[in-house]
Write a structure and sequence with these properties.
11% strand, single chain, 393 residues, 2 domains, 14 helices
Length: 393
């Protein structure tokens, strides 16, 4: 029994001739170089030709995503297209309302919606391409480029469309202003409708997200250990043990009398890290977590072995003023830098990763600047100030 495709699908496939596919690919290149010219040419075609071209670009993106992310199924690739369509909705609504207010004669639902969809669709393709390179190389340069492309889609959706359909500068500027105002109200409405005070805000960076999750159960001392102090009461023969810690240029004293608590903390950290490091997907995170594992190994060794005499830097004996007998014997030992160097390396790697993340997300910071009014209004009505949409895939 032969299978027969629906008539409309058969007609679409029949239209995908080699000549047309090559022409559409050529037009796709024009979009990246001369986006305004691309849309001018696109809307000169018949509605049927426009629809076929959009369907081809959609299928093309599904194939690209599927090839770049081998772990993705075809369903996952189609889900990316769904994300593109959903992302286009608030921008389509903003432009539809703005066009209607500025010029009813230029108002065309199909042209506005198709223009916004094509912007996000065609820019998502290179964005996903650079994202795939970033995930395989862990080089934040490619993540930055991916975010720049996403930011470009944001600005194109707000501003480019007005240059495609309008020539008068006054109407274009009016369209800019209306789009920004309407988009802010759209995001504010989105925040109100979908706000959940118990929800967790996740980063769009897979490396940072994984590291945050894999380090969530780690415990540590509130600073970098520098010296070990042991005070012995020569009358009662009771001893007090402390370590000094440096935290943000302040010196803290941590009592070690209940040393079993710290030994248990180190033991828990080591067991957790031994289990989570092999499961970490990203090499960068494995290196960072291994530094903290080295530090815990050093702490375990430090807590298990007495301080060496060569590390003694201060020895004070306190006398009883009445009979000049020795009362308290205090010794302070420097903690060798080899013990704490892995912690410093761990903290430095975390700081470097944070800086890379901030630089890579700078394009998103620029786009969110236009949404500041909605963020301020969200604060006024009691919503979290970090409620916003991330344009990433």
């Amino acid at each position: 029994m032969s299978f027969k495709l629906p008539k409309f699908l058969s007609e679409i496939i029949d239209n995908f001739t080699i000549e047309k596919v090559l022409a559409w690919l050529k037009e796709m290149v024009k979009f990246y170089l001369l986006p305004k010219s691309f849309f001018k040419t696109f809307y000169q075609n018949s509605f049927k030709e426009q629809l076929n071209q959009i369907i081809f670009y959609t299928i093309f993106q599904v194939i690209v995503v599927w090839l770049l992310f081998t772990e993705f199924s075809g369903q996952d690739a189609f889900r990316i297209v769904l994300v593109v369509a959903i992302t286009s909705i608030p921008f389509s609504i903003a432009n539809l309302l703005s066009f209607y207010l500025v010029s009813k004669s230029k108002f065309n639902t199909w042209k506005i919606i198709s223009c916004i969809y094509l912007i996000w669709l065609l820019l998502t393709t290179p964005s996903v391409f650079f994202l795939s390179i970033y995930l395989s190389s862990e080089n934040y340069l490619f993540y930055t480029i991916s975010n720049v492309v996403n930011a470009t889609a944001f600005f194109y959706s707000l501003f480019l469309i007005w240059h495609v359909f309008f020539d008068r500068g006054l109407k274009i500027i009016l369209g800019y202003v209306l789009n920004i105002i309407i988009l802010n109200f759209s995001f504010l409405l989105f925040s109100i409708l979908f706000f959940d005070s118990y929800s967790k805000i996740k980063t769009s960076d897979p490396i940072v997200e994984e590291l945050t999750e894999n380090s969530s159960e780690l415990k540590g001392l509130p600073g970098i250990p520098t010296t070990f102090i042991e005070e012995t009461n020569l009358t009662s023969h009771m001893s007090t043990k402390m370590i000094t810690l440096i935290s943000n240029d302040s010196i803290l004293y941590q009592n070690l009398n209940n040393i079993e608590v710290y030994k248990e903390m180190v033991k828990d950290n080591k067991q957790y890290l031994d289990s989570v490091i092999p499961l970490s997907h990203f090499r960068r995170n494995k290196v960072i977590l291994k530094e903290f594992l080295k530090y815990n190994n050093n702490l375990e060794n430090f807590f298990s072995n007495p301080a060496c005499d060569t590390c003694l830097i201060k020895h004070i004996v306190y006398y009883n003023p009445n009979d000049s007998s020795n009362v308290i014997d205090e010794k302070e030992y420097v903690i060798d830098k080899s013990y704490t160097q892995p912690l410093k390396d761990f903290q430095k790697k975390i700081k470097d990763l944070s800086e890379l993340y901030n630089i890579a997300n700078y394009p998103g910071t620029i786009t969110s600047f236009l949404l500041e009014p909605s963020i301020l209004l969200a604060k006024i009505i009691g919503l979290k100030s970090d409620v916003r949409i991330t344009f990433g895939f």
